[in-house]
Structure formats: C-alpha cells, structure tokens
Amino acid sequence: MAAPIPTPPSPRRTFLGRLSLPERNYLADALRTETVGGVILLVAAIAALIWANTFATGYRALSDFHFGPESLGLNLSVQHWAADGLLAVFFFVAGVELKRELVAGDLRDPKAAALPVIAALCGMAAPAVVYTLVNVTGGGSTAGWAVPTATDIAFALAVLAVIGTSLPSALRAFLLTLAVVDDLFAILIIAIFFTDHIDFVALAGAFVGLAVFFLLLRSGVRGWYVYVPLALVIWGLMYNSGIHATIAGVAMGLMLRCTRREGEEHSPGEHIEHLIRPLSAGLAVPMFALFSAGVPLSGHALAQVFTRPETLGVVLGLVVGKTVGIFGGTWLAARFTRAELNEDLAWADVFAVASLAGIGFTVSLLIGELAFEGDASVENEIKAAVLLGSLIAASLSGVLLKLRVRTYRALYEAEERDEDEDGVPDIYEQDDPEYHLRMAALHERKAAEHRRLAELAGAASSKPDSPA
C-alpha cells in the first residue's frame, strides 16, 4: 500500500508586506489629507491651551454660548455643537472608512484582517485594564476606563509630519487599519456605556430616517439637496433619542456603497469620502479640539495628573497600555497565525508604531467629557491627562522612529521611485517584461545624451581661441 502523499505546509503570510497598487494609491490620498488636517488639529489644540490660559473668561463665555432651536431640543452650547454636531462628520468619514476596509480593503480577508484587528482589540483592552488597576488600587473612579482606549490617527500623522519621518506604506496602512478598528469599537463603547436614557419615539424616528436614507441610496437617487437635509433630520432625532448623535454619522457612512462597478473609477463611498474628508480633517475635528482642549494648566494642575488615580490611569493607559497592548497583541497574533514579518522591517518598527498609537486625542477627549459629565473640575483634569499622555506618547514614538529614519527613508524612496515616469512606481512593474524594455530604452537614451554632451564639451575645449 502506497504511503499517503504529505500535504505541503501552507505558505506563511507576510506581515507588513507590500500593498497592492490600488490600496497604496488610496492610502496615499487619504493620509495626505489626514496629515494636513493633523497639523491643523495640532495648531487648534495649542491655540485652545493658550486661549484658555490667557483669556479664560472669554474662552469659557464663547464655549458656553447657547444657540439653536429650543423647540427641537437643539439649543446647545458652542462646545456641545462641536462635540455632537461637527464630530458627526468625523464619524461619518470613519463609517465610510470602515465600510471600505470591510469590502475592499485589508479587512475583507479574514486571514489578513486577523493581525490588525487583534492588535487593535488588545490596544484597547490593555489601556482599560491599566486604568482600572490604577484606580482600583488607588481608590479612584473607574468611570473613565474607556478614556485611554482611543487612537487619534490625524494627530499621529501630524507628529510624523513634524518629525519628518516618511514611514513605508505598509506601516502607515497598519496604523490606519488600527485606527479604523479602534474607531469602530470606540463608537460601540459610546453607544453602549454612555447612554443614560433613551427616548424610543425619537430613536424610532431616527431608524425610519436611516431606512429612507438606505432606500434612496439603493434606488440610485442622487443630489446633496436630498441627502444633506435628511442627514440633519436623522442627526437631530438621534441626538434627542439620548444616544450620542455621532452614531448617526457612522450609520450613514456604513450604508454607502464602497465597491466599484464596471466603468467606475471610484465607488460612491470613495467619492463622497474624498469630498467630506477635508471638511472633517480641516474643520470639524480642529473646531472640536479648539473648544475641548482648552483646559487651565498650572504647575499644580500638571503635578496633580501624576498623583490623582483617574488622571494617572489615563496617562499610563495611553503611554504604557496602548504600546504594550498593540505590540503584544501583534506579536502573539503573528506567532499563532504563522505570519512572517516583512524582511525589510523589524519588530522594533512595530513597537514604535504601537507607541505612536498612544496618541489618543479627539475620541479620548470626547469620552472624557461623557465619562465625567457634570463634574467640570475632574473633566478638565482628565483632559489635561489626555493631553499630557498624548504628548509623552508622541515624544517617545518620535525618538523611536528617528532611530530608524534612514531605513524608513530608503524604503519610502524605493516605493516612490518612478524612473520611466509612467505614473506607476517601478517596484510594482519589476515583473513586467515591457517595463524592462522601457527601462533599457530609457537608459540607452540617457547614455546617448551623456555621450553627445561629452562630444560637445570636447569639441569646445579643442577649438583654438579666436584672435583678439
């Protein structure tokens, strides 16, 4: 009896390998906008701190100024409009990003999605555990356990822009996927744990509005004048239902079609995201930061961050919990899924990106406001802890990334090189025989040009001087 033929082992999946060309182009476009928005966000946060600590009365008066229709339950403060209104735009973009990742990006393949999803979940669980342990042992409030669980992709990219580090696209994609999964679970945390009461009539109205929104999309109805008023109605009903109004933005983002049909250069979701992302990154998030990051800072207040268990838990959650959670989750997932790290990178690079993910600004500030609503003193201290923790994480990651900056720059330049100037990076054409023919012709033209210049230079040098 012949021995059974052994089944060959399945090839090991490469972790942080080269992206496909469409994914690389999408990533480059998305991160370009987020980087600019991140710098604006950074400026807005600094402006808020300066304003709140120099003209505190004016800052608080404007933040607390109320406007809006009282009859619709929407007479809100400026700060409230920024947190519940403008951030709905940010979460709408997050919803579209998540939908695209699920149907066309890295998350559509369960095996490829396992690593970033596990890393993101561990990167949210570990900070919550760190915060809880600090407050249980220190006698503090565990209400803020969710504050250090979020990652702010825009702020992280702003840090990369400031320190001048050109990360390879695989690391940037890993960071973006982490942030997308992070946003999804942050949304669930807000919806589940920070809803005190529910107005079921308003909630039913919001669901009816979402159903109409979905049916209009599926029917192919076009026109912003149809969807924008409907979106505002859905947002208002969701706000009055007691569930955080930003959930409406996520729900509508998830309904958009993000797969391309024949003849389409971009899907409707990608097109709308391209239009809305600059509004989100350049206006909505910075305005939220302007009216949420303005906390009074003093030597005593900063020292208290490290003595009060709630604030210490936030700082340690962001700096230690995020880094250990993401790195540890990634390493364990890679070990058990037999994923092989890209040979051009090292685990030190994953650790550096994990520390960069400790920058939890926008959503952390929002959750801090929700967790300690009604206690302005603690709320401000939590915000100060978020700012300080994010600053420490940014500084730590900046140092770690700078240590490998030459490697990153070489990999980035190799990814961007396009010697034949056809708009496609050469690294994606190396297996194409026509590419090698084009490159040979290009090199021959350059060599001929150099020979011609050399002949002209030789002729000029051998020509006798003209008489005076």
Oligomer: single chain
Please tell me the CATH architecture of the largest domain by its name.
Up-down Bundle
Q: CATH first level of the largest domain: which class?
A: Mainly Alpha
Compressed to H and E, one letter per element, the order equals EHHEEHHHHHHHHHHEHHHHH
How far apart are the termini?
103 Å
> How many separate domains?
2
Tally of DSSP β-strands: 4
Specify the CATH homologous superfamily of the largest domain.
Na+/H+ antiporter like domain
Low-confidence stretches: none
Count every helix, treating DSSP H or I runs of 4 or more residues as helices: 17
Strand order of the largest sheet: 1-4
Describe the structure.
The protein is mainly alpha-helical and 468 residues long. The chain folds into two domains: 14-67 and 78-194 and 247-416, Up-down Bundle (Na+/H+ antiporter like fold); 426-455. Helices cover 70% and strands 2% of the residues. It contains 17 helices and four strands. The strands form two sheets. The chain has a two-stranded parallel sheet. It has a two-stranded antiparallel sheet with strand order 2-3. A hairpin with an 8-residue loop joins β2 (66-67) and β3. The radius of gyration is 26 Å and the shape is globular. It starts with 13 loop residues before the first strand and ends in a 6-residue tail after the last helix.
